[in-house]
Design goal:
Structural class of chain A: alpha/beta
Strand content of chain A: 25-35%
CATH architecture of the largest domain in chain A: 3-Layer(aba) Sandwich
Largest interface: A-B, 95 and 94 residues
CATH class of the largest domain in chain A: Alpha Beta
Oligomer: homodimer
CATH superfamily of the largest domain in chain A: MoaB/Mog-like domain
CATH topology of the largest domain in chain A: Molybdenum Cofactor Biosythetic Enzyme, Chain A
Shape of chain A: elongated
Largest sheet of chain A: 6 strands, mixed
Number of domains of chain A: 4
Number of strands of chain A: 28
Radius of gyration of chain A: 31 Å
C-alpha cells in the first residue's frame, strides 16, 4: 500500500467531531487554531482617513490642475491627529491633513504635499489633479461591519491578531491542543539520564517525537519506557486512551514486538489495525490504527523512520485533530532548490525519503545524500533536509534539480 | 539605498558580543539557540548492534552461500534484547539476534531472517553471503567519543534533542532570548480594548509586531502607546534601553513624527541613524539606527510595511542578537510556485513586495496580487504570502512563474 493510500484510509475511519474550545486573550493566540468565525461588529476604519501627508480637498476643485496651470485653493482649518475635524470643508478650500488623519465633511480626496506649493498663509497651489477617493481609505474599506475577518480553522498568524485588535476583538475561542501519548517500547532502552549497561541504549525516539509533536502545536505526554510484553504495553495503551487524543507506540524493534503492537491494536479493536506495512523507505513496517475513534501509530524504531513517518502519517492526523483547515492539500514546508550530487537508485513502487546535506559550491547549491543507515540519529542531525524519490520513478540522476524540504 | 545595503550597514555597526547563556533541560530546548558545542563523552552505540532481525555470524562462514548452494551453520546461544551475550561465537555457528541486539564476541555480520532457512533445532541454511559489517551498526558508528554532535549557534531541532539524549546529555546551555521593546506612537491610536472616538483607531501594529517577535524566538515587551511628542517618545526609548536588546518604534505617521524619531535616535547617538529611507515598497520611510550598541528601528505605520520591514530588517538582526548561526545567507521560508495572474509594473530601482492570494484553478496554482492600499490590515489577512519584484526589474508579466513566500 502506498503511504498516501494508507493515510487516507486511516483518516476515513476517524470520527469527525470538532475539538473542545477554550477562550484566550488575543495576544496569546499566535499559532493556535481559531475555533470561531470572527465577524466584525463595526466598520474599520470608522471614518475616511488620509493615506498620505497633504491637503484634504474636494476633488473637483483640483480637476485640470497641472504644474503649468495650478488650481488655487484657500486654507481652511487644520486637521488634528486623532480628532474629528470641527468644520466642514467648503468649495474652493483645502485643509492640511496628516497621514491617518480624519477627512473633514465636504472633502473627498487628499493632495500629497509633494504636489502642493504654498503661496501664502491662506493660499496653496495644487499642481496635480486628484480623483474622488484618491489617497483616502474610506470608512469600512478595511473591514465592513458583519464581514468575516478570520475564519474558523485557521492557524492564527500575526496579521490575524492585528486584524482582531483593529476591530476591538481582544479574546478569541481557539481549539484546545490535542494531547498525544508517546509509549516507548524496547527492552534495550534506558532513560536518557541512565548509564546504559552493555547491550542497552538510551531513549532517543520519545524525545524526538515529543519535540515534533510540540512543533505541530500539540501537547506531548511521554509515558515512559515499557517492557516488550503484551500485558505491559496493552495496559500503557489503554491507560493512554483515558488522557490522550492520539497514541504513538515507538520502537518495538525486537523480534515479534511489531506483531505484538498490531495484535494489541486489533484486540482493543473498533476498528483495530488500518494498515501494517507501506511502500516507503524508511518506514516500511509502519502501523496505523483506530481504537474506538482514537488514532494509534506503531512506529519503527529507527530514528530516520520516526522522522519520516511522523511527517507523512502523524502530522496530518494531528492537524486534523487540532481543527486546522488547510487551504492547500499538501502542507507547505520550507524548500530549497539544489542539484543532486550523485545518482540515486530507488526501486519503482517505493517512495524513498533521502536525507541530504546542502553544500554551497562555486557552481551553486548541491544536495549531497547522506547514505547512512536509518538507525543512526546523527545522519538526521547532519542533514539539512530530505528529498523524495516518488513511487513511480526508478531513481534520480546526478545534476537533477531537486526540492530539498528543510527540517 | 537598497534594503540589502541598509541592513548590511546597520549590522556592521552592532557590537559582536554573544548573548548571555542559561542552562535548560534538553527536553525544553526546542527552538532555542545552542550556546555550546555539544561534544560526546562516549561512543554511540557503545557496542556493535544488529540493524535487522536475523542471525549473527562470522561473515566468512557465509562466503559463497547462495539459494542453490547454502552454507550450513550450527546454532549457538540466543541473544537477549538489552543484554550482553554471555558467549563468544565460534567458527561455523550462528546466533539468533533481534534488531538492535548486541553482537556476540566473534560475530562480525548479521544475516537477515529472509535469507535463512531453518533445517532443524540446531542447524540453519544461509542462502546469501554477507560481508563483514553487513547489517551491523558498529560501536561509535553513530557518534564517536569526542565528536561534536550539535554546534554552538544552531536553532535546536527535534533530532538534535534526540542526539543529545542518545549520548546522555540531559541539559544544555542555550542563549537567552533577546527582549525587544515595541513603542507605539500616534495620537490617533487607542488600545485594542478601547472604543475609539471619531478620528481614532485601535492599535494594530504593536500586536502584529509582538507576534512576529515571538515567532522569531524573542521576547516582545509592549511599552504602550506614546504621544507624538519628543520628550515622551525619547523617555520611552531611553527607558527601553534599560531592559531590552532591541527597540522598535512603530507608527509616527503624523506630520513631522518620522523626523522626530530620527532626531531622537540621532540625539541619543553613538552612532545614531544608520539609514533613513530605502528603495523598497512598502517600507520606503524605514529608519534604522544604533544607540550605544543597541539596534533601533523606526517603522512606517502601514500594516503591510510593518510586515515587510520586519522580515527584511528586523528578523535578521534579531537572529544575530539571538546567537543564531545560519548556514545559508538567506533565511529559507516556505515557498510555493504559482503563475502570476496579471501584469505587475514596478519602477526599476525599487524592490517591491506584493501580497498575493494563491488560487487553485484547473490550470494549476495562480498568484493573484492584492492591490489594496498598504494601510489596510485585511489585505495582509486575505493574502497567503508575498512575491518580490526585484530592484533591477521593470515588472512581471502575467503567466510568469513566481515564488510565493508563504506567511
Amino acid at each position: 500500500m502506498t503511504a498516501g493510500a494508507a493515510l487516507d484510509l486511516l483518516i476515513k475511519k476517524l470520527p469527525s467531531k470538532p475539538p473542545p474550545k477554550t477562550k484566550v486573550p488575543i495576544e496569546d493566540s499566535l499559532g493556535l487554531i481559531c475555533a470561531e468565525d470572527i465577524v466584525s461588529r463595526e466598520d474599520l476604519p470608522q471614518f475616511a482617513r488620509s493615506t498620505v501627508d497633504g491637503y484634504a480637498v474636494k476633488a473637483e476643485d483640483s480637476f485640470g490642475a497641472t504644474e503649468a496651470m495650478p488650481a488655487y485653493l484657500g486654507l481652511s482649518g487644520e486637521i488634528i491627529m486623532g480628532q474629528k475635524p470641527d468644520f466642514t470643508l467648503s468649495k474652493g478650500l483645502a485643509a492640511k491633513i496628516p497621514t491617518g488623519g480624519m477627512l473633514p465633511m465636504g472633502a473627498d480626496a487628499v493632495v500629497m504635499f509633494e504636489h502642493v506649493q504654498t503661496v501664502d498663509a491662506t493660499t496653496i497651489e495644487v499642481l496635480k489633479a486628484v480623483v474622488p477617493g484618491e489617497n483616502v481609505i474610506q470608512a469600512g474599506e478595511d473591514v465592513k461591519k458583519g464581514e468575516r475577518v478570520v475564519p474558523e480553522g485557521r492557524r492564527i498568524r500575526p496579521q490575524d491578531i492585528g486584524a482582531c485588535t483593529g476591530i476591538g476583538v481582544t479574546s478569541v475561542h481557539v481549539y484546545e491542543r490535542p494531547r498525544v501519548s508517546i509509549i516507548s517500547t524496547g527492552d534495550e532502552i534506558v532513560p536518557a539520564a541512565a548509564s546504559p549497561a552493555m547491550g542497552q541504549v538510551r531513549d532517543i525516539n520519545s524525545y524526538v517525537l515529543a519535540a515534533m509533536i510540540s512543533e505541530a502545536g500539540c501537547v506531548a505526554l511521554r509515558k515512559g519506557i515499557i517492557r516488550d510484553e503484551y500485558v505491559a504495553i496493552r495496559a500503557a495503551v489503554e491507560g493512554s486512551m483515558e488522557d490522550s487524543d492520539a497514541i504513538i507506540v515507538s520502537g518495538g524493534t525486537s523480534v515479534g514486538t511489531k506483531d505484538m503492537i498490531a495484535r494489541i491494536i486489533g484486540d482493543i479493536g473498533d476498528s483495530g489495525v488500518v494498515f501494517h506495512g507501506v511502500s516507503l523507505k524508511p518506514g516500511k513496517p509502519m502501523i496505523g490504527g483506530v481504537m474506538h475513534g482514537m488514532p494509534v501509530f506503531g512506529l519503527p524504531g529507527h530514528p530516520a523512520a520516526v522522522s519520516v513517518c511522523f511527517e507523512i502519517f502523524i502530522r496530518p492526523v494531528l492537524d486534523l485533530l487540532s481543527g486546522l483547515v488547510e487551504k492547500f492539500p499538501q502542507r507547505a514546508r520550507a524548500c530549497m532548490k539544489a542539484r543532486l550530487s550523485k545518482n540515486i537508485s530507488s526501486p519503482q513502487g517505493r517512495e524513498e525519503h533521502i536525507r541530504v546535506v546542502i553544500e554551497q559550491r562555486d557552481s551553486g547549491l548541491w544536495a549531497v545524500p547522506l547514505l547512512g543507515k536509518s538507525g543512526l540519529i546523527t545522519t538526521l542531525v547532519k542533514a539539512d533536509g530530505t528529498i523524495v524519490v516518488p513511487l513511480n520513478i526508478n531513481g534520480l540522476e546526478a545534476g537533477t534539480v531537486v526540492d530539498v524540504r528543510l527540517f
